[in-house]
Design a protein that fits this description.
0% strand; 75 residues; elongated; mainly alpha; single chain
Length: 75
């Protein structure tokens, strides 16, 4: 199997091979190095539920405000 893969990839540039690989990942909805189940550590378990956001909380706006405060208006 490895030899077959090498034959397919041999004429490709590295960029073409990476594009092919990531297309495969997207089609299969996974990345090989990522486990399907993410284990939650004890610290995360212990603090989960401490913060409650309102239903209309806009995370994007929140982050924009923080970044604008830190770096100023770039426009």
């Amino acid at each position: 199997m490895l030899e077959d893969v090498k034959k397919v990839l041999a004429p490709m540039t590295v960029e073409e091979a990476l594009i092919l690989f990531f297309k495969w990942c997207v089609e299969n909805q996974r990345l090989p190095w990522m486990s399907r189940e993410i284990e939650i550590g004890p610290l995360t378990k212990s603090i989960s539920g401490i913060v409650r956001f309102p239903p209309d909380f806009d995370e994007k706006k929140f982050m924009e405000d923080i970044l604008e405060e830190k770096y100023g208006d770039k426009e």
